């Protein structure tokens, strides 16, 4: 019978961990606004579809979270595709996915949704860091 330490040793990579590429993505409506730094961007379409965003004492957090849960994985895919292209290797060689967001808690999370959008193997090790605020947004 194999011991726990033997299993852990077999799962370890040889050599130090490396980040081989990083991709970023920004919603298209933010790129065109010409504002260098912003914290949230709402356009007329978003406001019409989500009237609670501007209504006094309305549950606007729920409306924002509903948008984020759908849009964050899409932005993640856009960023990941750039990183994979820069890396220059097939997606089948991806072993780990680290996903960090300032908001958008959902289960299963954005990391899981991203693995599906990218067509990654289901056993890719995923690390999800939710609610990291400015720390995640600035790194």
From TrEMBL:
The keyword Nucleotide-binding belongs to this UniProt entry's keyword annotation: no
Keyword Nucleotide-binding: no
Biological process annotations from GO: polyketide biosynthetic process
Domain Chalcone/stilbene synthase N-terminal stretches: 30-139
Keywords assigned: Acyltransferase, Transferase
InterPro entries named in the record: Chalcone/stilbene_synt_N, Polyketide_synthase_type-III, Thiolase-like
Family: Belongs to the thiolase-like superfamily. Chalcone/stilbene synthases family.
Protein name: Chalcone/stilbene synthase N-terminal domain-containing protein
Taxonomic lineage of the native organism: Eukaryota, Viridiplantae, Streptophyta, Embryophyta, Tracheophyta
